[in-house]
From TrEMBL:
UniProt superkingdom: Bacteria
NCBIfam families: hypD
Keywords (A to Z) from UniProt: Iron, Metal-binding
InterPro entries listed in its UniProt record: Hyd_form_HypD, HypD_1, HypD_2_sf
GO biological process annotation, one example: protein maturation
Name of a matching Pfam family: HypD
PANTHER family for the chain: HYDROGENASE MATURATION FACTOR HYPD (PTHR30149:SF0), HYDROGENASE PROTEIN ASSEMBLY PROTEIN HYPD (PTHR30149)
Single annotated GO MF: carbon monoxide binding
Keyword Transcription regulation: no
Species lineage: Bacteria, Pseudomonadati, Pseudomonadota, Gammaproteobacteria, Oceanospirillales
Protein name in UniProt: Hydrogenase maturation factor
UniProt record similarity statement: Belongs to the HypD family.
Length: 366
């Protein structure tokens, strides 16, 4: 594949790594806000190419990981109603709630199905008019347009047996929350390229200016990430704090106008609780009043916010960029993808899953 190989050229990667090493004169801490970028960094050993002055930390970039416990609990409750088909993406079925996950509900007889698209859930609603079909809609701005289109199409078609349990989150408010934290050590961001494909990057301009942090829109291949790191370091060394977009082959400043229009029609901005992080103002999307008829919370009862369960899992600290997966004493021993203690090991985009898959189990003490 020409274009993939073009951005995985090892010699070009070494050139960028040397340029970063020549530029850096002091320690800097950068955060990538995307689980896909985290996996690329660990898979290709990008962090190991960088000089010791550069620290990459992993942010709350896994949409499954930050879905609140109470929404998982509500989805399980809804799934166990008679005549309900509950659908979601595959990763969501394994995310633990307070007492189990959706796959456990399926094993007890609930009709829980993994789908590739919310439009698959619409097809199920059309094919099963006598049953309630509920789509558990999660994710960042990247999945929001398709989920909005599902609600829009349901309204156009008059599908009275379709609804959505919506737990969407937005990236810029999370970045502000991270920077506002008293223990934050983040000095620059690698912005998620696929989010910017939808939203553009204008929302990042006031963040960069207010917090004096460089933000570089970054893709997912090794050269994309190294280029993002280089530009962040160059800005930091020069005392700059600007938004740059080297990912211009995909991202435009204003984003995708068609996607933004359907999102604006179907959704409204609301407060949202993030798993492992807490409440963040104006950081979520809920259905707009015109689409309230398709709101599963209205149809089956609202989500009740409870205290998040605690345990030895440190996934919250990983999501905040305060710890690495290998800092957890349970990593790779009591916590594995087969027997996960927390969401960052469950999800295919989770940082713990990335470290386990590409860096292996921790060495046992001799």
């Amino acid at each position: 594949m020409k274009f993939r190989d073009e951005y995985r050229d090892s010699r070009a990667a070494q050139v960028l790594a040397r340029a970063i090493a020549r530029t850096v004169t002091r320690p800097w801490t950068l955060m990538e806000v995307c689980g896909g970028q985290t996996h690329a960094i660990v898979r290709f050993g990008i962090d190991r190419l960088l000089p010791p002055e550069i620290t990459l930390v992993h942010g709350p970039g896994c949409p499954v990981c930050v879905t609140p416990v109470e929404y998982v609990d509500r989805a399980i409750t809804i799934a166990e109603y008679p005549d309900v088909i509950l659908c979601s993406y595959g990763d969501m079925l394994r995310v633990p709630g307070s007492h189990g996950d959706l796959l456990a509900a399926k094993s007890r007889g609930a009709d829980v199905r993994a789908v590739y698209s919310p439009l698959d859930a619409l097809s199920l609603a059309r094919a099963n008019p006598q049953r309630e079909v509920v789509f558990f809609a999660v994710g960042f701005e990247t999945t929001a347009p398709a989920n909005a289109m599902a609600a829009y199409q349901a309204r156009q078609d008059g599908l009275a047996n379709f609804s959505m349990l919506v737990s969407h989150v937005l990236v810029p408010p999370a970045m502000r929350s991270i920077l506002d934290a008293p223990d934050s050590r983040i000095q620059a961001f690698l912005a998620a390229g696929h989010v910017c494909t939808v939203m553009g990057y204008e929302e990042y301009l006031p963040i960069a200016a207010h917090y004096r942090v460089p933000i570089v829109v970054t893709g997912f291949e090794p050269l994309d990430i190294l280029e993002g790191v280089y530009r962040c370091v160059r800005q930091l060394e020069n005392g700059q704090a600007e938004v740059e977009n080297p990912y211009s082959r995909v991202v435009r400043r204003s984003g995708n106008p068609t996607a933004l229009r359907i999102m604006k029609e179907v959704f409204r901005v609301i407060p949202r609780r993030w798993r492992g992080i807490g409440d963040i103002a104006d950081s979520g999307l809920g259905l707009a009043p015109a689409y309230a008829a398709f709101d599963a919370e209205r149809r089956f009862g609202a989500v009740t916010v409870d205290t998040e369960p605690t345990g030895e899992c440190i996934s919250g600290l990983v999501l905040k960029g305060l710890c690495k997966p290998t800092d957890c004493p349970a990593f790779g021993t009591r916590c594995t993808p087969d027997r996960p203690l927390g969401v960052t090991m469950v999800s295919s985009e989770g940082a713990c899953a990335a470290y386990y898959r590409y860096r292996g189990k921790p060495a046992r003490p001799s």
